[in-house]
Amino acid sequence: MNRNKTFCEECRRDVEYMVETATIKGKLKGEEYEYTGKKAVCTECGSEVYVADIEDENLKALYDTYRQKNGIISLEKILEIPQKYNIGKRPLSLLLGWGK
């Protein structure tokens, strides 16, 4: 199956799509956030189509925006700490008071 094809509800068949950068608004924990994400657009009719990988990326971007605006460390930074300081995940979580 071609990775650049998905089902278009307007065309009622599998079509090729383009990926565009877009400013998206999303709600998280009762607040609205604006972030830069992606959208898939049908190359035949121009309507927006659903692509799971793009939706996953947009959800990650929404959570990253939420973390940034609320001063929460990103998941990537948390995962870098054990490697940078050569410490296991369990000792790190105990050090931070997070439990085992």
Structural features, described:
Helices cover 35% and strands 34% of the residues. The chain has 100 residues and is of the alpha+beta class. It has a 4-stranded antiparallel β-sheet with strand order 1-2-3-4, covered by helices on one side. The N and C termini lie far apart (43 Å).
Find the count of extended strands (DSSP E, 2+ residues): 4
Integer average pLDDT: 91
**Beta-strand residue fraction:** 25-35%
Net shape: elongated
Strand order of the largest sheet: 1-2-3-4
Topology readout:
Elements: E1 5-8, E2 13-28, E3 31-42, E4 48-49, H1 52-69, H2 75-84, H3 89-95
Antiparallel strand pairs: 1-2, 2-3, 3-4
Task: Provide a concise account of the structure shown.
The protein is α+β, with helices and mostly antiparallel strands and 100 residues long. It has helices spanning 52-69, 75-84, 89-95; strands at residues 5-8, 13-28, 31-42, 48-49. The longest helix has 18 residues, at 52-69.
Defining traits:
single chain, 100 residues, alpha+beta, four-stranded antiparallel sheet, 3 helices, 35% helix, elongated
